[in-house]
Amino acid sequence: MTGKNEKNRIEKITKTLVPYLVVATISFFFVYIFFVLSGFNAISIFKVLMEESIGGVTEVQRTLLKMTPLLFTGLAGILTYNFGLWNIGMQGQFTMGVIMSGIAALFFKLPPFLMIPLVLIFGFLGGAIWGSLAGFLRTKIGVELLLSTLLLSFISGYLLKYCVHFPLRDPEAFNPVSKFFPKSAVLPKLLPNARIHIGIIIGIILAFLVLEILVKRTHFGYKARIVGTSPEAAKFGGINANRIVVILMFLSGGIAGLGGAIEATGVWAYLNEGMTSNYGWLGIAIGLTGMKLGKGTAIGIILVALFFGILKTGSRAIHSVYGVSMGVVFIFQAIILISVLLIPILQEILPQVKN
């Protein structure tokens, strides 16, 4: 019996580790060939990527700053993906969080213990309203979430540009930006003289609250799971599916919006049209990877966000140090992303191949 248990344990470890090793080998090979064909020293590029993302205290802080908004947008995505809803509009919800938190920071004058919660609440509500609007369109007139969340993301992007060019523009600035937020609206740092702020702590706590408690241990999570997996059973059980959809989109959009508020008040402290980067779009990949590879757990989504933070920070360093065009960098990121998404597929295929 002991020998059988040992054999089962080894098979379980093998099933877990082998796909990672296979994918790591394949991705390294293709990335290496890609950079060589592009005329770059692949080994040097890999070295720079690691050194500039996790090579020291400053680099780690830079990576954690990139990880923080990715954690919020990835969490917003995985919340809906767990229940069969496809919110791909985290970019728009994140942007609305940026705009609304900026409005609160620029127009209210309060002490820090009131100002910081206020700007974060405004950011949450900005994203939540944007998300629930898509949920309302789905439940009332049948517009698919894939379409509505995507289109709303473009609208919010243009809305941010409008705000920094016209009503919120600093008249004394040459570029289209807002005035600086008051110090009372800026998130405090984790440590003196550190760049990393308390937003990452908020994100980690929220990940556990959402994925380990709301999704798995509440009556709402149970009903939402029924709506996602079996709409007919939900209808038979008297569950208001439309209400569940709108609430989920409200919460998902709110989480992305909160991430936008934390980015605006923790990193920038003013509004500009390029500050949202592609955090929301990457949130789609992070949410899907966290669901498939991280098994929908809080630890899983945190690690996936960290991985993408490393990738985003290191990729930017490759661009600045070696002059690699952003097009090449994006292809590099895509190869890594596709490789990561292959892992759960291999975990299912390899045992069948063995049999």
Question: How would you characterize this protein structure?
Answer:
The protein is mainly α and 355 residues long. It has one domain: ABC transporter involved in vitamin B12 uptake, BtuC (Orthogonal Bundle). It has 13 helices and no strands. Helix 3 packs across helix 12. The radius of gyration is 22 Å and the shape is globular. The mean pLDDT is 89. This is ABC transporter permease. It comes from candidate division MSBL1 archaeon SCGC-AAA259I09. It is a multi-pass membrane protein. It is found in: Cell membrane. Its main location: membrane.
Strand content: under 5%
Report the helical percentage.
Answer: over 70%
Total helices: the number is 13
Q: What is the CATH C level class, in words?
A: Mainly Alpha
- The class by helix and strand makeup works out as mainly alpha
Q: Give start-end ranges of low-pLDDT stretches.
A: none
Strand and helix map with partners:
Blueprint: H1 2-37, H2 42-54, H3 57-81, H4 90-107, H5 112-141, H6 145-165, H7 199-217, H8 219-229, H9 231-236, H10 241-268, H11 279-292, H12 298-322, H13 326-354
